[in-house]
# Entry
Amino acid sequence: MKLSGCNLPGIIVMVFVMLSSSSTSAITNFNVLNFGANPTGGTDSTDGFLKAWNAACGTADSTFIYVPKGRYLVGPLAFKGQCKSSQIIIRIDGTIVAPLDYGVLGKSNNWFSFEDVSGVSIIGRGTFDAKGPSLWACKASNSNSCPSGATTLSFTNSNNIRINGLTSLNSQMFHIVINGCQNVHLEGVKIIAAGNSPNTDGIHVQLSRNVEILSTSIKTGDDCISIGPGTENLWIEQITCGPGHGISIGSLAKDLKEEGVQNVTVKKTVFSNTQNGLRIKSWARPSNGYVQGVRFIDSVMRNVQNPIMIDQNYCPRNENCPGQVSGIKINDIVYEDIRGTSSTPIAIKFDCSDKNPCTGIKLQNVNLTYLNKAAQSFCSNVVGKAIDLVRPNSCL
# Structure
């Protein structure tokens, strides 16, 4: 299967070769309990986790770090790369819990941060519980003393990464961030946060290539998956989203010089009671960025406010953008086999830039209704075509 330059089987083969190669070489095991981690949840285990990582990182063999069942109180951790081991597998069967004081994590950018690593896999049925509600409540009170909050799991400038089977619960901010990475395989993950939790994007990808997100359930208060500048060859398949803000490319045009987004496939997704379904969003500001080669295929909408949406006039609170237009160039976007219900009359909205109209937009086999009756579509500065059945009637 190959679409827009994204070779899915090739990436999968690479991932499994990476994991199975250990069968021909020695594996050294490290149990966090042997480094002082405490499974009762009452004693700080941060140092034990870090010592286990340093031991694994300093070993030339393939290594296996094990977190048994139990509860582990852990503060912010940064796992640095340049390891002797070419493969580190971390199996988490326990629950990792954040300190009760939200400020301990909240003053850090990340809770678990992996930087400049290669060949790291995090697997198992364990849970990261960031205890985000107390920080969300602080933010809801409009207090100026609230910290920004931490991303639960962050990978930066890293390669050959696998995340499988974990649960991220109540992250303070983003749950998982993939930034500046290559060859990432994420599968079978559960992400859970309240629908009103602020800035709790499920998975954010930016400046990264060859990333797969498969068979994942996301319930959160912001974008289920957000796609930032510099993303190339991204494959998303079998995702359930809701509550949340849908799957969004953007927001883009935050900066004048910005890398583009290209070769993105979103396939077999279900959106339930979300703010958006499939969205492309850019600020109404000058930019040299672009979006091209995107395929949205086989999506079900269940009571979604904006099932299909391109917004190039994004300007919240009318700050730093009134009177401007987006410089982002959007081209070659396909919506195929999209069906279900909109919770608002306008089910398809293409609000594009009058300076850089959206081009190459294609709708094929789209059937969206509103309250069991016909929905509407809105088009501004968009060029494209509708093929086969398209409801609401396309304005392309």
Q: What stands out?
A: Confidence is low (pLDDT under 50) at residues 1-24. The two ends are 30 Å apart (CA to CA). The chain has four helices and 33 strands. The chain has two domains: 32-222, 225-239+263-277+290-395.
